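User: quick one, fold this
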Amino acid sequence: ALGAQVITVRNDAANLQDLEQLQPSHLVISPGPCTPNEAGISMQAIKHFCGKIPILGVCLGHQSIGQVFGGKIVRAQQVMHGKSSLVSHQDQGVFAGLPRQFSVVRYHSLAIERASLPESLSVTAQTEDGEIMGVRHRELPIEGVQFHPESIDTEHGMAMLDRFLKH
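Assistant:
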């Protein structure tokens, strides 16, 4: 719908050479069950492509970004499976120009621990109770969102994905 050619590669069925051969212009590290440690080549891909192409992490991909740069992944304040929450944001990156607060759909039981958030990442969005819902690298084109912008029930999700593709 946004005009991008999308190639889906399973994180447990490819290696970095496979990804390199695709010559991606952007990389989305997608959701999934488990923790970043069990997410196939997701963290390796973030390390390999960081600074080369824009990277967006969604849910598990967001957590993987947090862990790659030194954050700790912990149990979320609340388990959220198919539930909506209001998020507030800092009007940066994929959130630029969007209403300052909107509803998103969440499917997760883990989150990036705020106390261990590395200096290289800034919080770009959060819930009313302070759970981190968005991070952005301070120098590289890397962002993560804990919620699901691809869900029809997430407000402004397509606009967020469009902003990422135009990065």
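User: anything notable?
Assistant: Helices lie at 16-22, 42-49, 60-68, 157-165.
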